[in-house]
Structures are given as structure tokens and as C-alpha cells.
Amino acid sequence: MKTILSQAFNSHSSIKVFLFLFALYLCNPICTRATDRQLDSLYTILRQTNDIHVLAKTHIEIAKLFWTSNPDSAFFHIDKADGLITKTKVNDDYLNNQIIRSNLSFDLGHFEEALHTMQTTLQNTNEKTDPVIVARIISNIGNCYAQKGDLSKAIENYTRAISYLDENKNVSEMAVLYGRLGNLYYQNKNYNEGIVFYKKASRLFIALERRSGEAISSMNIGNCYKQLQVPDSAIFYYNKALKQYKAIGNMQFNEAQCLANLGNIHAELLQTDKALKYLLNADSLFNSTQNLYSIAQVNSDIAYLYLMLDKPSLAKNRIDKCLEISKKNGYDRLIETGYRLLWKYYDKLGDCSNAYEWLNKYSVIKDSIGNVSRQENIDKLLTQFETERKEKEIELLKQSEEINRLELRRKSFVQHITLIGLLLMLIFTVLLYLNNIRRKRLNQLLTRQNAEINQQKEEIITQRDEIENQRDMLQDQNYLLERFHENTTHSLRYAQSIQAAILPSEKVLRQISPNYFVLMKPCELVSGDFYWATCFDEHQILCVADCTGHGVPGAFMSILGITALNDIVVRHRITKPGEILGHLRSSVIESLSQNDVEHLHKDGLDIALCSFNLKTRELQYAGAKIPLWIVSDDETTLDKIKDSAKQISENGRVLYEINGDIMPVGHSPRMSAFTNHSLSLKNTKATIYLATDGFADQLGGSKHSKYGSVKLKKGIISNSMKPFAEQQEILHNAFDSWMGSSFQVDDVTILGIKI
Questions:
Q1: Long-range contacts of 596-601 (CB under 8 A, 24+ apart)
Q2: In terms of pTM, does the model score above 0.70?
Q3: Apex 379 CA angle, 378 and 384, nearest 5
Q4: Which of 393, 439, 739, 753 has an alpha carbon within 20 to 30 A of 717's alpha carbon?
Q5: CA 65 distance to own-chain centroid
Q6: Per-residue pLDDT tens digits for 655-681
Q7: CA quadruple 206, 208, 210, 213: dihedral positive or negative?
Q8: Total domains present in the chain
Q9: 385 and 449 both lie in a single domain
């Protein structure tokens, strides 16, 4: 770096220095390692240049290097940059510097100061200001309100910022805002929607190669799973985020957040030793970052854990520290937490008087922070945001389709005109060549040559007219083809939305078990596969089915199957799987008007259906060509089926396979009753897997062969102990890797659930 700097200054060109600083700015994010070598290089620039613009940029870069290690020095250099930027009269530079100042105040927990800085900065913008800069300012204002607990104002500012970014297609800023919207959904206890926005942000950060953004998305997804009471998935994403932050380096604050989250979730699991270790490590890192809000927060968490461990004296010290910081900086929610902990502390000591006093204080501040009208306003704003977002997506889709249609027409026209032009040029070239040859011939042939040329010209004109007529016909055909394609695509997307709407919701599946995953990969826009589930009384019933064909025919069959199952199970309260499949077969035959010859082997579906009784813990299964796979935590409970079930083992674990009947649900040569299998799962938990044949039948790999059911089952066994979110991700990646550049041959559906 020093060599580059010396070359730049020897040239006596401020432009070269500016370009060097601009490159440094692009290559170094806020969390760049503050090495002595970098500081030496930047201080060298300060000594050797008089260019005001370059000096301002240099002070900003030095401030970034001091960001986490020395905040006072960072503010000093930001102030220096402010004075220099004012002299340059470049408004965008001033605004960006104020954004940096606000971010530093925010990271230190000075939310009021950060908010004041951004509100003042916004007043200095106008219609000529870069929309991306305006969006950053408004977004930071929303972030301050969110941290202060004023979610309604946070939503107003985030949606306003998104309107600027939608117009300018700034992917980087959109990724940040998706993450902040996820935070709002999280604070409003809509955790499933929070996961949706966090994953949107993660995908954009991965595309941008922003590792820090990907890491914080992982941590936020873990927070949502923690609130949904899926601890294994939460721990998986917390550890993933911790590894990502450690790989980046110099991210002590973020590492501390991961450690604090791991400590809290282990505390909830009553793993107090692990929890205390994580929280004390987090406390040490937070103190090194000087982030006051996080220091107060982790002290409240440690105090709560000490109360659990019956160590009130240690808890009291932590509570006092939390309240001291929170009252000084106006952290209302942490003050509320401190009052609640003091109530618990005095209650544990048996001091009823003080306990009652702090209980009253806690109740007063709790009511003042979270009133019903504010919550209703937040719900209204979130609903409004979702509505506007969907309307924008629809409008953008229409605009994109119209642009594509016009572009295709333009390209077709240009291609035809170009072809005609090339043809005419070729003919003209040939004519010139022939004319030059003929000029050398005898004068006696000149009259005949001229006649021939005139005849050729007439033929060219005729050909040109024919080509133009063909071009017009082709344009008309292309237009009709485009209209047909648009109508077909619209119909298929509408069918897709209908099919998605009739599939069971996440709420229904979580009623059966919070530990599950569904991997569904349609071969086309709509799928011939479907899954179905319902709960009533003590019965939990679910299935996976593969209808004849895929695409639109398969989708129609799936709708028919789901409708029939709702009528048989939900309406008539039939719970025995064998009987359900019998009624389903009759319904399919009747609905399709199948006779003995014409529809034999044509239309129907393969299915695996399970019924689980919560009271008796009896699992019943019946199937048509699709087996039931079971992996149990206690293999002794499966002794009854070991003789009749196929077994496959991998890494010391065993998967048991119970096959269904070799006949479809529909008209077939064999029309006997479906076999009903029963298995007791008392005093144990088991994981069941239901899968259509699409995954096993997929062609790919080095030999372009089928994936195979044995390989699929071994993969399921190997990963059966992992969190269900991770299992889904592993299967998804394995399928895509095997398929490679090949096309998908069939619909794929795999359901895994612990009962």
C-alpha cells in the first residue's frame, strides 16, 4: 500500500489520490480491520495532500477504522470531515457523512442522538438529492424508532424508504430494509412472516457477497425459531451465525449477540451451566464494544439466570447495573425488565413490602409502553404495507410482461429487416461482380447483358415484395402466439395459486408437531403431487400423494383428491387409513366416470396415509404404492414390525419401511380392500417420512442415472438427528446437485415429521 501511495503523490495529481481513496472506500466495509498499516497509509495522505475533497474522504476512512476500537477517535475524524465537506459545498458528501455519524451513535446505543442527527439531515435534502441517500436517511430514522419501541413510526419510515428504493432498484439497500422489516414482524410477534423477510434479505446478501449481512440474517432466523419454540432450529441458526461472524473477523459485538442468544435459549432448556458460560462470554465482549444498550440487556439476562440458580445477591448487582444504564439513556423496555427483576428478587427474599412496590412500578411502566391502540395501529400499518407491496409486485409483473412482448416484436422486426438488407446486399454484390466480368466481354454481347440485368432487377423486386408479405404474415403470427402464451401463463399461475391455497397451512402442521419439514418441488408451475393434513378430537391425520401425470392434469387430480379427503375425513369423521383409501377410490372412480376397460391403469393416484391417536399413541398406516418410513428414538417399540418391515441402516441408525398395497387409488385389475397397518408408539417418539417417487426417479449424476430409493433412504437416516430445517436444506441441495443441468422429470414431495 505504501508503494502505491508514494507513486500517487510523486505524480502530484490529486485526481489519482481521489481514485485511490474511492477504491479504498468501495473495498472496505464499516467493519474493516483497523490495522496499523492502513492507519499509517491514511495519515500519510493527510500530511501530503491539500485537496479538501481527498482530505475529507481520508478522515472518513480513518473514522471507519476506529469504529469499534475507539469511538471517540471515530467521532473526532467525522467532525474533521464535516468541516472539510462544508467547504467543498457537495451536498451528497455531507449527507453521507451524517449517515456515518448516526450509525456510530446507534451502534453505541445512543438512539436519541442518532435519531436527532438523521431528522436534522433529512431537512437538508431536496428533489435533486440522490434517492438512495434519502432512502438510507429515512431507513435509519425508522431503525431508531424501532429500537425505541415505537413500531408504528418505524413502519411508516421503512415503507417510505422502500418507495425510493423500488424506483431505483438498489439491491443492497433493499436487502437491509428486508432485514429491518423482518425485525418489525418479529417485534409484532409475527415470527413466520419475519422468517420470510429474513430469508429474502439473506438471499440478496449472498448474491452481493455481503457475509456480514448473511450472518445477521441467520441470527434473526434463529430468533424467530426460538419464539416459535423450535429450539433445535434456533440453535442451528445461532451457531451458523457465530461461525460466519468469526470467519469475517473483528465482529465482537455481533459475536456477543450470538453468544447471548445461545445463553438465553439454553436457559429456557434449563441447561443453566451452558447458559451462564455463554452469557458471561457475551458480557465480556459487549463491554469491549462500549454498546450501552447491549451491556444493559445482557446484565438483565444474567440477573434472571442468577435468580433461577437461587443466587439473589449476584442477581442484584446485575439488576442495578442494568437499571443504571437504562435510566441514564432512556431505555424504557429495559427499565421495565429491571423493575420486573427487582419484583422477582424481593419476592425470592421473602420481602413482601418491597416486592409489592416493585410489582406496582413494573405494572405502571408496562402499561405505558405497550397499550392496545398502538398495537392496533401497528397491525394496520403492517397490513397496509403488505397490500401495497403485493399491488406493486402485480404492477411490476404486468410492466415486465409488456416490455418483454414489445422487445420480442422489436427484435423480430429488426431480424427480418436485417435479413432482407443482407439479401439485397448479396444480390447487389453478385450483380456488380457479374457486370464487371461482362464489361470485359465483346461489345456484341452488351445489349443482351443489359436485357438480362433488367430481367434480374424485376425478379429482385418480385422477391422483395414476397419477402415483405412473408414478414407481415410472420409478425401477425408472432403477435397471436404471444397473446396465446400470455393467456396460458396467466391461467397456469392462477391454477398455481389455487393449488397452493388448498394445501394445508403451516398452522395445521404445527398443531400435529412443531418439528417437521416439507420439501415440495413441482416439475412445472402446478404439481401432480400434494400433501394433506387435519386434526380433530384426539386424531391427527396426514398423507402424501402422487397423482397420475404432472402439470395441469396432475393438478386437477390433486384438487379432486384433496376435496375427496376433506369430505371423507373431516365431514364423515372416518379415521382408519384403510377405510379412508377405500372411500377415496370409490370417489375417484365415480368422479372420473371410469369403466372397466377404457380407464384401466389411466387415472388415479398413489398415496401414503397415516392416522395417529394422541391418547393411545397408536399409529395406523395404509398405502397405495407409497411406503411408510420410520426412524425411532427407541427401536424396541418397533419389535412388532421388524419381521414384516424392510430395514436399512446407516451410521448406526435403522430405517424401517412398511410397504403399501401394489394397486393405485382408482380403477385397476386388483380392487381388494387396502391393508391397515397398526403400530404402538407408547413411551417413545418417532420420526416418519412420506415421499413420492419423484426424488428417487430423478436422472442426473455423472452417469445420468436415477438417484435411487436406497440412496435417498440412507441420506434420510444419516440426517434424521439434525434439526428439521437443516434436513430440508440438505435434501434440497442434494436434489439440485444430482439434477445438475438436466431437466426435472417428475414432481417431488417429501414430508418428515416427529410424532
A1: 596/667, 599/666, 599/667, 600/667, 600/668, 600/669, 601/668
A2: no
A3: 95
A4: 739
A5: 31
A6: 999 999 999 999 888 889 999 999 888
A7: negative
A8: 2
A9: yes
